[in-house]
Structure formats: structure tokens, C-alpha cells
Amino acid sequence: MATTSRILELYLPTFLLKTTFRILSKIVRRVKGRSWVKKLDASNEKDEWEGYLIAENVEHLEIGKDADMIILYAHGGAFVFGDALLPLKMFIDWIKTWKLNHGVNTQILSLEYRLSPKYSFPAARDNILACYQWLVTEKNIDPSKIVFAGDSAGGNLAIVSAIYLVNNPYLYSIDPPAAIVLLSPFLSGMLNTKSVIDNASYDSLDPTWLHRCMDAYIGDSNLLPSCSMVSPVFEHQLSGLPKVWACAGGYEILLDDIKNFIGKLIQNNVKAELVIEDTNFHDYAVGKATSRDGAYERSIKYIGKFLYD
Known about the structure:
- The chain has helices spanning 2-11, 14-32, 88-102, 123-138, 153-167, 194-199, 207-218, 255-267, 295-308, and strands spanning 37-39, 50-54, 69-74, 106-112, 146-151, 179-183, 243-249, 272-277.
- It is of the alpha/beta class.
- It has one domain: Alpha/Beta hydrolase fold, catalytic domain (Rossmann fold, 3-Layer(aba) Sandwich).
- An 8-stranded mixed sheet has the order 1-2-4-3-5-6-7-8, with helices on both faces.
- Strand 5 (146-151), helix 5 (153-167) and strand 6 form a beta-alpha-beta unit.
- The protein is globular, with a radius of gyration of 18 Å.
- The two termini are 35 Å apart.
- 47% of the residues are buried.
- The model has no long low-confidence stretch (mean pLDDT 91).
């Protein structure tokens, strides 16, 4: 599976990757999403983002109503492809498991942010911040009930958005979210750590392809791949962030960057937890089919305990 993924990344044009994931997303929604998914009001397009509310009996709900927590989620896809509803099975498993284990109602807002190369940095980050501002100011949802989350490139966007919010309080008169959840986050465009070399033949991500995607994401912004705005592992101003939970597979190329970033958070007095599943590779926590040895199920329990205990 990992080898097939790397081949597709290297040789399939980006527009075909996007088309493939849209088709898969439609299939997932048709099979799983009839009573779980509601597209948010089209008026949100004025901020150039769209989103989907995922919750039990969603057709009868308003976002935030009777919710213990709302997760603002950014999907993966190396900034160039992906779909907000492709992780729908994971979202449903989160909601069901946490209700059973903790007696809570969780809602998820999965964001369709603007993709590269058509939209380069900071378009995707600004989509997340605009959506967060909409939740807080227009929907009157307290930041203490909102979590930023994402996988892979979406994890990058989640943490970069939180850092920007904390370090630029004069731009946003709202508090940061209550927590951040990062699933195999893509935290550095440099891709020059030991785990990139050691795990390149095992992981589902190809480093050459990731370099190309990062170049497309940076676009004409004149940033270097080492700039902390696109590679948060190099950020030094981390104090003030909410608590962070992260996970990584022992066979993924991003492992060292993830470990280094969590270490920096702890050094900056940010409460941070990292779970490493030794026998797994990139994004194992997003789908049971890509995980080994029960790691997918454990991640759901770990995140629920982190957020609700």
C-alpha cells in the first residue's frame, strides 16, 4: 500500500489526484454520510471557504447547539489535493466512541480550504482563521469549546493558524482554541532529517513529491521552505499555545520533525503529548485500513481522553 501510494504521488498529475479523491469522497459520503453530513450555508463563501458539519442526526442540528466540543478540521493532501469528507469514517468513529466513553456530544466542521498551486500561502491558513472567527463571532461559540485539528498538511495548517492567532493578538480579538490535535503533521518543508532517509522506502509519502508540493504551496510568496510560517518546526515563539496532542508512525519520514516540534513545545511550557506507533506509517490514525496492530482504534481513545478527561 505504501509503495503504491508513493508511485501515484510521483507519477500521477495533481489534477488526477484531485479528481480521484473527489470521487472517493463522494462514494464515502453516499455510503456513510446520509444522516451525518450537512453542508454549511453558502454565505460562508464570501470568506472563500466552505465546510461540512458532521454530527449525529445532523439535519436537525445547528452548529454549536448542544455540543460539548467542536473540532475545526483541516484535511491532508500536501496542500495540493484532498477533500473535507474523505476522513468521514474517522469523524463518525470519533463521535460515536467519545459519546460512548465520555458521554459527550462532538461536532466536527471539516473545512474545504483553498488548495495550491492555484492558491499559494497564506490562502489556506487564512481560510482556517476566517472559519474560526466565524464560529466565535457569528455563531457565538466560546473558544474553550473549539479544537483545531488536522492530518499531514492539515496538521501543518492547524498549528500554523494557532501560532499566528497567538502571536498576532492585535489582528484577532478572540482567544485561541482549547486544544490542537495533530495526526502525522507535515511540519517542515526542508525534509532533511534522519527519518526521511531511514523511512523513505517504508512510508506512504515520497520526499521528492513532498518537495514539489511545498514549492507549489509557497508559490510566489518569496518564502523559504525553512520559514516558520510554512515550516512550524522552526518557530521559536510557541508560548501561549493551547495544549497539543500529536501522533506519528514509527515508519514515517516526518517522524523526526514531529518529535523535534513536540520537544520545542514542552520547552516553551506548552502541554504536549506525542504518541508514536512503532509499526505504522504516515496517517495511520486517519483510517483503519492504513493502520496496524490496533493503532487506529487506540488513537481515537487517546484523543478522546486528551480532550475530555
